[in-house]
Specification:
Structural class: alpha+beta
CATH superfamily of the largest domain: P-loop containing nucleotide triphosphate hydrolases
Oligomer: single chain
Number of domains: 2
Largest sheet: 6 strands, mixed
CATH topology of the largest domain: Rossmann fold
Strand order of the largest sheet: 6-7-8-3-9-10
Strand content: 35-45%
Number of helices: 9
Helix content: 25-40%
Radius of gyration: 24 Å
Order of helices and strands: EEEHEEEHHHEHEHEEHHEEEEEEEEHEE
CATH architecture of the largest domain: 3-Layer(aba) Sandwich
């Protein structure tokens, strides 16, 4: 559906560097990265708002590198909705259809009513954007974008300005748009939950470069390097040296002096071991866990994070556990605790 080859664009203070991407037909593709990574600039380059200094952009088998945005059959949804304040909801949705001039006014009106009914916003049709909530405005923006039947829908941080409940609701609506209409969607965000919930595949972007592409599981559980691991919330990033490899299970002597086991093909050398905090099991005695790895530690911090509790130990391990587990274990700062995790939960990189 989309092929980007060796794309480079310099804005003096920032540049997109050698971007190579292939996005499949009907895929929900998320570009994930921190603020300032270049995600929006890449999205706008796909849309045709910027012409690359070198490289090319193909959409549906056509080289669109120098094609005007309005000729690319691309819908664009912004974080700030960008609705016309002097148009009603119905007029906003119909606006793109009128610009296309490819159908009669009657057909445009029928298409508008169809989209309004499908998204369940008929009760908003004659209201103006200033009278709508953020979630309602974003739903209208989605309706306006899909009304013109784009082959590709680009979304620039579409849920960032919304409260958590509205974000959860609109995530489900975006999944429905993709599943029911079969539109290829490219969504940029810094929100990891959005990437996990929505994406078929994810590209991690940092400093104008694509750092890793994979399924949500691969990105969040098998990051390629320490910078990606840190960004996607691995938290437990341990340095050590491989001492032994028996049938694909390696023993790693950590710089702290302790040893852990991991599934890896490495047989020697310095490595980094990544363990997600939610894969850590806490217990008051070593015998309570059957996991291959078990380390003793002293609790240094217990932080409430809503439904979860973040526990920090003096052995550089961080765990995320439920409130129920916290109460059962009676956790307190200064107490001795055992940290356990499976060998398969450890991802090892050079």
């Amino acid at each position: 559906m989309i092929r980007i080859s060796n794309l480079y664009k310099d804005w003096k203070e920032f540049s997109l560097k050698d971007i190579n991407l292939e996005i499949k037909q009907g895929e929900y593709f998320v570009i994930l990265g921190p603020t300032g990574a270049g995600k929006t600039l890449l999205l706008e380059t796909i849309a045709g708002f910027h012409i690359p200094d070198r490289g090319d952009v193909w959409i549906e088998g056509q080289d669109v590198t120098y094609l005007a945005p309005e000729r690319r059959r691309v819908g664009f949804i912004y974080q700030d909705y960008s609705l016309f304040p002097h148009f009603t909801v119905e007029e906003n949705i119909e606006f793109g259809l009128k610009l296309k001039k490819s159908a009669s006014p009657v057909a445009n009106r029928e298409r508008t009513e169809q989209i309004i009914d499908w998204l369940g916003i008929s009760h908003l049709a004659h209201r103006y954007p200033s009278t709508l909530s953020g979630g309602e405005q974003q739903k209208v923006a989605i309706a306006r974008a899909i009304a013109v039947e784009p082959s590709l829908l680009l979304l620039d941080e579409p849920l960032a300005a919304l409260d958590r409940r509205t974000r959860d609701y609109l995530r489900e609506e975006l999944k429905r748009v993709k599943e029911d209409l079969g539109i290829t969607m490219v969504h940029v965000t810094h929100d990891q939950t959005e990437a996990m919930v929505l994406a078929d595949r994810v590209a991690v972007m940092m400093n104008g470069r694509i750092m890793q592409i994979g399924t949500p599981f691969e990105i969040f559980n098998k990051p390629l390097d320490e910078a990606i691991a840190d960004f996607v919330g691995v938290e437990n990033i341990l340095s050590g040296t491989v001492r032994d490899n028996k049938s694909g299970v390696v023993e790693i002597e950590l710089d702290t002096g302790a040893s852990i086991f991991a599934v890896s093909s490495y047989s020697e050398g310095k490595v980094k071991a990544f363990i997600r905090p939610e894969d850590i099991i806490l217990s008051v005695s070593r015998e309570e866990s059957s996991a291959r790895n078990s380390l003793k530690g002293i609790i240094e911090g217990v932080d409430d994070m809503g439904p979860l509790t973040r526990v920090r130990m003096d052995n550089s391990i961080v765990a995320l556990i439920t409130k129920q587990s916290r109460e059962r274990l009676g956790l307190r700062i200064g107490a001795e605790i055992y940290v356990s995790f499976k060998a398969t939960s450890v991802h090892v990189v050079r």
